[in-house]
Write a structure and sequence with these properties.
Layout: E1 4-9, H1 14-23, E2 29-35, H2 38-46, E3 55-59, H3 66-73, E4 77-80, H4 91-98, E5 102-105, H5 110-114, H6 116-126, E6 130-133, H7 137-149, E7 155-164, H8 173-182, E8 186-191, E9 194-199, E10 205-209, E11 213-219, H9 224-231, E12 237-242, H10 247-261, H11 272-282, E13 290-299, E14 305-314, H12 325-336, E15 342-345, H13 352-358, E16 364-366, E17 371-374
Parallel strand pairs: 1-2, 1-4, 2-3, 4-5, 5-6, 6-15, 7-12
Antiparallel strand pairs: 7-13, 8-9, 8-12, 10-11, 11-12, 13-14, 14-16, 14-17
Helix pairs in contact: 12-13
């Protein structure tokens, strides 16, 4: 059997490691694990036992030697796990596509996703490959859940989505950088049937996730508000919130957001090293369990009021695998082929069942089809 080469950019990051471990159980691929320092990738590979896929360390800096590495590896597909995608461009994707490889990313940044299709669709079509964006918890998993729960509905009134990871889970620099990038700044929300804005890490409130309990969450920047609002012509609200299990961390980011909103502080990037160090203390009072909830109201095909809720619970520190499951499902589809050439959001290729199947090896449970009942 001829193996397909898969290059994972950012393969030694928090999510890149999870994707590599997940894909290493496949016997039909060879994995090329990249890091700016090849030695770091080699050390990580040594920690993976009983891999069915051949693993190869790669020293890669996308700004300097991506073309050279692509010519050497000749990948079937490239998965970009590097992040953060806030403010990122499409140079990496363009180079990958022009080398005739499929491209998948874990982007959740609104600005990046907004122009992804227009920037890359022509290039992908010209080279007969697919470019799949947002193959992560948002917008792919969230959109797939909403599509499943509202199938056959006459219209959708409200969509409320929240994510709250377990506090003991590892957090990389890119995640904190992404959080700080929009704290205290305007982020999109769909309100009264049109796009509006609220404050990033503002509007805090508490949610109760069945099987997980009460968590404090606040508004975060995602593509879901405008994407789902327009796609489903939502009549009232699309909101997306997230919460840090550590009360100290959550109140801290809310405070920073409030200070920035008032113009009392500016850029927050200088705080990243201190926040990473502080987590060694703040995570001590947290758990290894996190979750995601999607709550929807609307009317069905008979114009009867409906209320549907879907929940995901991840235990044993398996939560960080959730953001890579949509990417793994996308790789499955590409390997099975054929996939129409062009650029699209990854939920155009995978559905909720595809993603849930990828969760089988982990302590991750979901409600089967949502709690769909008359309102």
């Amino acid at each position: 059997m001829s193996l397909k080469n898969i290059l994972v950019i950012g393969g030694t990051g928090v999510f890149g490691k999870r994707l590599v471990r997940h894909l290493s159980t496949r016997a039909d691929v060879a994995l090329f694990v990249s890091s700016r320092a090849e030695g770091r990738a080699a050390d990580f590979i040594q920690s993976i036992k009983d891999s069915l896929a051949p693993l190869h360390p790669v020293g890669l800096d996308c700004a300097t030697n991506l073309q050279e590495r692509l010519e050497e590896i000749k990948p079937f597909a490239v998965v970009d796990c590097s992040g953060p995608f806030q403010g990122a461009g499409y140079d990496t994707a363009r180079i990958v596509l022009r080398n005739g490889a499929h491209f998948v990313d874990l982007a959740d940044a609104r600005d990046y996703l907004t122009d992804f299709l227009s920037a890359l669709d022509g290039i992908a079509r010209d080279h007969g490959v697919a470019a799949l964006a947002g193959a992560s918890s948002t917008p792919t998993l969230s959109t797939c859940v909403v599509q499943q729960l509202t199938k056959g509905w006459h219209h959708v009134d409200t969509i409320d989505i929240c994510i709250t990871p377990g506090g003991k889970s590892a957090v990389g620099r890119s995640v904190i950088e992404a959080i700080l990038s929009y704290a205290g700044r305007d982020v999109p929300i769909w309100r009264s049937g049109h796009l509006d804005h609220t404050t990033g890490w503002g509007a805090p409130h508490k949610v109760v996730i069945p099987g997980l309990g009460k968590r404090r969450v606040a508004a975060v920047e995602t593509f879901d508000a405008e994407h789902l609002g327009r796609m489903l012509n939502v009549r009232s609200r699309v909101s997306f919130s997230a919460g840090l299990e550590s009360r100290l961390e959550q109140l801290g980011i809310e405070t920073l957001a409030a200070l920035r909103k008032r113009g009392l502080i500016g850029q927050l990037g200088w705080l990243i090293p201190m926040l990473l160090k502080a987590r060694s203390i703040t995570r001590l009072t947290t758990s290894d369990s996190g979750g995601m909830m999607v709550d929807i109201t609307g009317r069905d095909e008979n114009d009867l009021p409906r209320h549907s809720k879907w929940c995901l619970i991840a235990r044993n520190d398996h939560g960080p695998f959730v953001p890579v499951l949509p990417a793994a499902a996308a790789i499955d589809k590409l390997l099975a082929g054929p996939v129409t050439a062009g650029a699209r959001l990854a939920h155009g290729v995978v559905d909720l069942a595809d993603i849930v199947r990828q969760a089988a090896p982990y302590a991750i449970t979901t409600t089967p089809d949502g709690h769909n009942q008359a309102a």
